[in-house]
Amino acid sequence: MKRSILILFAILLHLGGLCQQSEPLKIGDCFRIASKASPLQRQKTISGEALSYKLMNLNTNWFPMVGLNAQASYNSETVDFSDITKNTPVTIPSLPLDQYKIWADINQQLYDGGTVKAQKAIEKASYEAGIQQVETDLLNLKQQVNQAYFSLMVAKKSYAILQVTLDELKERKIVVQAGVDNGVVLPENLLALEAEELRLLQNLTELKLLQGQLFMTLSILMDTALIENTVIAEPVEPGGFNDPVIRPEYLLFEKQKEVYQANQKLVSAADLPKLFAFSQAAYGRPGYNIMSSNFHTFYSVGLGMKWNFLNYGDSRRQIKIFDIQKDMVDIKRETFDDQLNVQLETENTNIEKYTELLQQDEQILNLRKAITAASLSKLTNGVITSTDYLRDLNAELLARLQYENHKILKLQAAYNYLLLQGKL
């Protein structure tokens, strides 16, 4: 009983695997899997961790700075009051020649002019710019996936059409063979059909190898092992072409400008005065009371200010440099807009072109089918040679391939358009 249950369970698992393998591969799944599996995702995680450490390091600027020091010295001479007091009853002890001191310096930042705040803004804007750069790279990855997916669709569709043509040719060989046997058709016409059959087999071999290469390309981009008999789902024709563009490069340009703005604030903060509190706690001899030769504790506390108010115009020029760099970002954005508009117009033209071509392709294909059917009848009756028939057959094959390829190229142009808009 247990063995029967195990066998049934194994069969169900096997059938489940077959169902998973037969699940059509959709282009949206390819985009999602490729983006999720990309090493660029780890870069986003690592960048976030690095930002946390950088912000924590900047926060420590507000922590007290504590330094521990020690010193021992021996002097060849010291202050001696004997000459002053030799004619008086007063005796003033001399300082010892050996002196010792251990002390701690403590400094606390009270006001930094906004330096730490500006540094944090720089780090955050740099991080966000890096994230948008990753999103840009991921969009480029999707474009590669898109190209490989539709190239694979073309290869598979061409393979299927050639296979159907080959099957039809084999059937027509039987008809021609009957004509040869009855003396109606010359034998060399049958040889020409056999040669054409071999040529089609060659083309099928090339397309099979091309499919394997494209499957491998998709596997690498998606970091997923794809089998060559995976079913490729034909995408539905998308819409939403008139929606606004949401490319990640736009946010990247904005974050780059924020980095320069934060740097300007940092330069301005450097020109402001800095306030701090300080203290020193010590043990040794002599202390602040130089008349005491005993070891004892002593300390001092106070407030301080630092202000480098004279920088000879360096800050003003540095701020101007950052203004120029922001202008350069605007120029990059304008250039990007021009290039993007050219690409969008190209893909829009392709969509319109293939829409019109498909209407003509359908008419051409119907005519070619009729011509080929008439040629086959003439061939079987010995009116024309196989060369004439094969010319018409290849013209029909070309028309069929062109019709199917134009359908796929129209879909690819539509998806290229949406990718350029940043919507996929």
Outline of the structure:
The protein is an alpha+beta fold and 424 residues long. It is built from nine helices and four strands; from the N terminus they run H-H-H-E-H-E-H-H-H-E-E-H-H. Strands 1-2-3-4 form a four-stranded antiparallel beta sheet, with no helix packed on it.
Task: Please give a structural write-up.
It is a single chain. The chain is an alpha+beta fold and 424 residues long. It has nine helices and four strands, in the order H-H-H-E-H-E-H-H-H-E-E-H-H. The protein has a four-stranded antiparallel sheet with strand order 1-2-3-4, with no helix packed on it. Helix 2 packs across helix 5 and helix 7 (248-270) packs antiparallel against helix 8. The longest helix is centred in the middle third of the chain and has 67 residues, at 115-181. It is rod-shaped. The two termini are 52 Å apart. 18% of the residues are buried.
| CATH homologous superfamily (4th level) name of the largest domain | Outer membrane efflux proteins (OEP)
Mean pLDDT: 87
The secondary-structure element order is: HHHEHEHHHEEHH
Domain module count: 2
* Alpha plus pi helix count: 9
Q: Which segments are poorly predicted (pLDDT under 50) over 5 or more consecutive residues?
A: 1-21
Strand content bin = 5-15%
CATH architecture of the largest domain: Up-down Bundle
How many strands in all?
A: 4
Structural class: alpha+beta
Share in helix = 55-70%
How is the main sheet built?
A: 4 strands, antiparallel
Basic shape: rod-shaped
CATH class of the largest domain: Mainly Alpha
